[in-house]
Design a protein that fits this description.
5 helices, single chain, about 65% helix, globular, mainly alpha, about 100 residues
Length: about 100
């Protein structure tokens, strides 16, 4: 089984969806977005949260590909933004402290 970051790098989505999510990533706030996407009252570490978000995003992508009437591009961008935001947090946690930039 591939690790989460490898799965993310292999993810293929339309360029416009990815571009919109990348624009929104700097404004991603975990404390407000995760409860809305994953359920209130659930605090999770980046790894498990990222796994759940990726499952939700895969379901959303299936709706997009099948032309499902309940598909929402705004919700899909929000999910992709959360996936990208959580992956950034996960990568930052994995980076040794001496390599992190000090700001």
């Amino acid at each position: 089984m591939q690790d989460l970051l490898t799965q993310l790098s292999n993810l293929r989505r339309p360029r416009l969806l990815i571009r919109a999510a990348r624009i929104a990533v700097p404004d991603y706030r975990r404390a407000t977005r995760l409860p809305r996407l994953l359920g209130y009252g659930m605090t999770q570490k980046s790894g498990p949260a990222l796994m759940r978000l990726m499952c939700l995003e895969a379901e959303m992508n299936d709706k997009r590909e099948n032309g499902d009437a309940s598909y929402s591009i705004a919700d899909h961008v929000e999910l992709l933004t959360a996936v990208m935001g959580e992956s950034h947090l996960m990568r930052a946690q994995m980076t040794p402290p001496q390599l992190r930039s000090v700001t």
